[in-house]
Amino acid sequence: MKLIIKNGTIITAEKSFRSDLLIEDEKITHIEGNITIDNIESIDASGKYIIPGGVDVHTHLDMPMGKIKSRDDFESGTRAAAFGGTTTIIDYATQSRGMKVQIALDEWRKKAAGKSFIDYGFHMIIIETGKTLNEDIAELIQEGVTSFKLFMAYPGTLMVEDEIIFKVLESTKKFGGLVCLHAEDGNEIDSLVRQAVTNGNLSPMYHALTRPPKTEADAVRRAVNLADRADASLYIVHVSSAEALDEIKRGQDNNVKVYGETCPQYLFLSIDDIERKNFEGAKYVFTPPVRENHHQKALWDGIKSNVLQVVATDHCPFNFNTDKRLGRERFDKIPNGGPGIENRLHLLYEYGVNAGIISLNQWIEKSCTNPARIFGLYPQKGTIEVGSDADIVIWDPEMEHIISSTTHHMNVDYNLYEGYKIRGQAITVLSRGNYLVKNGLWVGDTRAGKYLKRYFYG
Ligand code: URP
Ligand code: ZN
Ligand code: ZN
Questions:
Q1: What separation in Å is there between the alpha carbon of 58 and the centre of ligand 3?
Q2: 67, 157, 160, 447: which one has the fewest Cβ atoms less than 10 Å from its Cβ?
C-alpha cells in the first residue's frame, strides 16, 4: 500500500513543519517538501495537522470486576480510541488470585487477538507473588511485557505490602522493567470508609471524602523511598493531587527515577461533579477520586514543568444505569472507573492547546511521544519519522463538535465530558498505513491490531 499525504503541517514533540509524507508498506518512508509520484493515492491535507497516532498507556478493556466487566472490549474500545485519534494502547492484563501471571497474559492475548483495530501491548497487574517472582518477571519481560502495576490500595483484594513492592522493584531493576504504582494508602482509606459507612454517610461524594489527597501523597512518598532504596525506576499512574505531585517532584529533585502520569478526569473534573444530585455523582466514582478545583492548576503546572510526562486515560467504563447502580445504597459498592479512551486528544487540544496552556508540541509529547518512549515503543510509535509505523492522524484544527454519549463510540451509557465543546477533530486515522477513519467515517474493516512486544530502555 502506498499513500502520499500532501501539504499538511507535521507536528511532533520537537517541531512543527510543512511537509509531504510518503507511506509504503505500513511505514513512513519519506518526509520531504514536495513528494509527487504518479498513480498512487494522495490526500490533500492543506490546513490540517499531521500528528502521530495517540498512545494511551492506561486502559482496562474487557476487565472483570467482581461479577461485572468493564464495558468496552478490544473491539469497541479500540474503535472508539481510533475515532479519537489514538492508535496504540497498553492495556492492563490482570492477575487473579491463585493464577500465574503467564496465564493472565495468555487470557489477555486471547481477549485482544483478532478483535483489536489498533496495535496494543500489555502491562501486568500483579496482585500476589510467590517463590518464582524473579523467574515470572524475567519471563514476562521476554514476552515483551516490561511494566508491572502494583496496588497500594484495596486491602484484601488488590493491595500488596511494601515488602512486595520492593522485591518487584529489585526484580525489574535486575531484568529491565518498570513498576507502575497505584499510590493510595489503602489501610488509611479503608478505615475512613468504615467510619463513613458506620456514620451513615453513604452517597457517592463520600468516595472522594474518604480518599483525601494526603492518602495519595503519603503513598507516593513511600513508593519514591522504596524506588530510591532499590535504585529502580518507578511510574506513578493517575496522579490526581497537588500533594502527590509535590512528592514526585521531591523524588525527581533527589535523582530518583520517578515518572508521573495524570488523566483528563483530574484536569477537568472536580468534587463538584461527584456531588451531583440523583446519584449522578456515581458517574464520577473512580480512584484516585476527583479533587477540589485548585488541584487542576497544579497538575497543568506539573505537565508544563515536566514533573508529569504522560497524560493517559485510565479508561475503565461502567454503565451508569446498571453497573454504577450496584452502589445505590452505599458508595463503596459503586464500581470504580470511568470512560475516556475516545476523548483524550480532544480535551487536551481544546483546553490545553486552544486555551494557550500547552503548545502543540507538548500536546503530542504528553499524549504520543513520552508514553511511547517510557514504555518501550519509540520510535516505532509516538512520532512521525522515517521508519516509524504509519500510525497517522489528520487533525482538523477548526472542526467543532460537542462531546456526548449520544454520539460517542465507547460502549457506555454516559460520557464524563458531556456537553464539552471542542474545536479540533481527528478526521482521518491510519493504523500502519491502513485507514480506520476516513473523512470522519469508520472504514476499518479488519481487526488487524498487532501485539507489541516492548523493550525497557531504562
Ligand atoms: O477507578 C479506577 N481507576 N479504576 C481502574 C483501576 C485503576 O485503579 O486504575
Ligand atoms: Zn489504579
Ligand atoms: Zn487503571
A1: 6
A2: 67
